[in-house]
Amino acid sequence: MDKIKFNIKREERNIEISFCNIEEIQKIIYARGYEGVCIITDETVYELYKGTMDDICEKISGSLIILEPGEKSKCMNTLGEIYSELNLRGIKRDDLIIAFGGGVIGDLTGFAASTYLRGIDLIQVPTTVLSQVDSSVGGKTAINLGNNKNRVGAFYQPQNVIIDIDVLNTLQKREFNNGCAEIIKYGCILDEILFDKIYDIGNLHDTRVIYKCKLEQIIRRCIELKIDVVQKDEKDIGIRNILNFGHTIGHVIEGIDDYEKFKHGEAVAIGMYLITKWSESKGYTVIGTAEKIKNILLKNNLPINIQGIDSEYAYRAIIKDKKASASGVKLILLKEIGECFIKHVPLEEISKMTEEIFV
After folding, report:
1. Each residue of 87-111: b (16+ CB within 10 Å) or e?
2. pLDDT by residue (tens digit) across 220-239?
3. Fewer CB within 10 A of the terminal residue: the chain, N end or C end?
4. Model-level pTM?
């Protein structure tokens, strides 16, 4: 058999994470020399930052796409609408797309940028705790297919991520707490000192003003931890899986009632606690770890339990998870706070696990 082999050298470049005021966006755009710019946001964020976005569009002849807020927009229909709008507005391959909003906007816009014209430069401007510490960093982009979370997506790194801590003051308490679940996750899997710092502060939302410097330090630390993992495994085939701690159970919970009942972080909070309780019962995790997680979640007004989930429904949802294979599912478990591991669990044990967790 004759063969032709060739090697493609992947592009290596720096991704900038800028801690600055969102008003600095214009300077960054000018410095990079973009001629065409399209900002994609949602109605809620636009009302908060209308002046900033309108000013950018006016000064650089940019355009706006404003979507309905919420997880329901993270779907194929909305993606198609974005493609149509980008085409209508004449966005070219050397132009720029800005994702200005929370996790849904970041994921959806990132996927649109990765696929429209086979890739357009992207800047992420995350406006929630969750998107600042997690979804805007690392290059994961995706949309949902029905109740299947993040089923269609791509790895696509932004040129820049702009972090403005002050925008978090606009968040309602529930939305702020929603992001705190991901902050707590980093402490659970990678950094016991971070976990203890969060625990000592108490409720991050209620102390965000008096402890602003500490909050910024915490957010920076979460980003540093994620960058360290992503640099080792950008495409999520190995060690990056640990960032999904709490997500296997969490995605089951989040999909209930068409994403209306629980926010992502709330579902992950429940997932972290329930999987650790189960893990303790199997001897994988130091006894008392689940109690520590329970206490820190309750301090931040996050849920720890759920009633009424059918174990068979949960099992079928889990085996559709991205970490599932024909032989089993990769679960992210804790040895103790600050130390985690990946365990491949056979499907028959997953079935038993869902029966034990969702009683």
Report:
1. eeeebeeebbbbbbbbbbbbbbbbb
2. 999 999 999 999 999 999 99
3. N
4. 0.93
